[in-house]
Design brief:
Elements (H helix, E strand, L loop, with lengths): L2 E2 L9 E7 L5 H13 L24 E7 L2 E7 L10 H13 L3 E2 L1 E7 L7 H12 L3 H4 L2 E6 L15 H11 L5 E4 L14 H24 L3 E2 L2 H38 L13 E11 L7 E3 L20 H9 L1 H4 L11 E3 L2 E11 L3 H36 L4 H10 L8 H9 L2
Helix pairs in contact: 2-3, 7-10, 7-11, 10-12, 11-12
Protein name: G domain-containing protein
GO molecular function: GTP binding
InterPro entries: GTP-bd (IPR006073), P-loop_NTPase (IPR027417)
């Protein structure tokens, strides 16, 4: 297993990007991989990148590390941490995006998240949204979540492996859906050599087997995605178009609301809910209920060309000894007998929806008009906020990536019906300023 440092971006089999908040363990994971690929114990070889214990990042530039392993070439790209106290986030984003623009493909994104971090993450959330929005859709689906500082009571590096609730917790923490989530505890020291006693050696070997190899195997399962300039620009066009459509949809709802208000004010007989003779009106609404933790509410989310999404009934029991019993008896207990997938891919459907009927007293024209007026003010405020957020987001993109956004908007407008340009016209005028 040899290390090589690359001056060009072709010839590798797997390209892996590491992103995360400052101090979350990106560089420490890179040092772990360096020891693993070199066949050394932690501290036996020099650090290839420094790591941080706080809010100041030690990775100031995008760093590349290439390795040969089992006949394949791997390129790992370690990025500076966000929410840094010394480096401006705008500069960091620009550095990362310029590096990504030079890659011909990306295989996986290792998204490192501190399991116990309670810091505010507003800046990182903004940066993450910017970077992920510029990647091709297929790349955004190739995210492997890494929970650092994640330990069980025994405080060992390899205790918790792919627990079902980690997928849900990772989505809650990051608003990002990961294909896999692997939890690691930062137990080993890479900046100094520790005389390896038997337990330490066994721990490191176990960590390599259950963590680093697991990460590598998951990377190998992913299909590398082309990052050619055309596909990247097409992805951005699609993203801008989607943002504009959301604004236009909200504007259409507001327009329909204003039409109804005019009818109520000048032609109340044409409003169905005012033209009913009965004093009580029966209406329906969809109500959201939380599911119980019963086995019947579990569903298989295994991705096999598409999600399995089969409700299996009584196929999931995950209570202490049952989990260990399944491991002891083998696949009959660890895999679902109905679909054959491992039970760790079975998640609870948290909610269900039910239509409810209720009665409401017939409104007078004045009461209905007052209700619609309040709704109009709320929607107008939402629309202005949505427009401001989109414009602010795109202006920020203009500052860190050299793409002709105005020309992209022209192409989107040309692909639409001229009578349905809506917010795109306003967006183009703003981008030209």
């Amino acid at each position: 297993m040899n290390i090589f440092h690359r001056n060009r971006y072709q010839g590798y089999d797997y390209v892996v990007i590491l992103i995360g908040l400052t101090g979350n363990g990106k560089s420490k994971l890179i040092n772990a991989f360096n020891c693993f690929f070199s066949g050394k114990y932690p501290g036996e070889i020099p650090l290839i990148t420094n790591y941080s214990h706080g809010i100041e990042s030690h990775t100031k530039i995008v760093q590349e590390f290439g390795y040969y392993f089992e006949g394949k070439r791997y390129l790992f790209i370690d990025t500076p941490g966000f929410a840094d106290t010394k480096e401006k986030d705008e500069s960091i984003r620009c550095t990362i995006l310029n590096k990504l623009a030079k890659l011909d493909k990306i295989t996986a994104i290792l998204h490192i998240e501190n399991y116990n971090d309670k810091r505010g993450k507003v800046e990182f959330d903004r940066a993450r949204k910017l970077i992920l929005s510029l990647l091709v859709d297929d790349v955004r689906s190739n995210i492997i979540g890494i929970f650092s500082y994640h330990s069980e009571p025994k405080n060992r590096f390899f205790e918790n492996i792919n627990k079902t609730d980690d997928l849900t917790r990772f989505k809650t923490y990051t608003s990002v859906s990961a294909r896999k989530v692997i939890g690691i505890d930062n137990y080993f020291k890479f900046d100094k050599f520790i005389n390896c006693n038997q337990n330490y050696s066994e721990d490191w070997n176990e960590f390599c087997k259950t963590k680093l190899r697991k990460i590598i195997r998951n990377i190998q399962k992913l299909k590398s995605v082309s990052q050619t300039a055309y596909k990247r620009i097409e992805s951005i066009k699609e993203y801008i178009s989607g943002l504009a459509l959301k604004v236009d949809s909200l504007a259409w709802e507001l327009s329909e609301l204003k039409k109804k208000m005019r009818l109520v004010k000048f032609y109340p007989n044409q409003v169905p809910e005012l033209n009913i003779k009965a004093n009580l009106i029966t209406k329906s609404r969809v109500v959201k209920f939380e599911n119980s933790h019963d086995a019947v509410n579990f569903i298989c989310f295994k991705i096999t060309g598409g999600k399995c999404q089969i409700n299996h009934g009584n196929c999931y029991i995950n209570i202490g000894g049952w989990d260990r019993l399944r491991q002891f008896f083998g696949n009959y207990f660890t895999n679902c007998p109905k679909c054959g997938h491992e039970r760790s891919s079975h998640l609870k459907k948290n909610f269900y929806y039910k239509e409810e009927f209720y009665q409401e007293r017939k409104k007078t024209p004045d009461a209905l008009l007052n209700e619609l007026e309040n709704l109009k003010r709320s929607k107008e405020k939402d629309l202005e906020n949505k427009k401001a957020n989109v414009i602010s987001f795109l202006n920020e993109l203009k500052m860190i990536i050299d793409i002709p956004f105005s020309a992209l908007v022209d192409e989107i407008m040309a692909s639409r019906n001229r009578a349905d340009l809506g917010f795109l016209v306003e967006l183009k005028n703003t981008l030209n300023k």
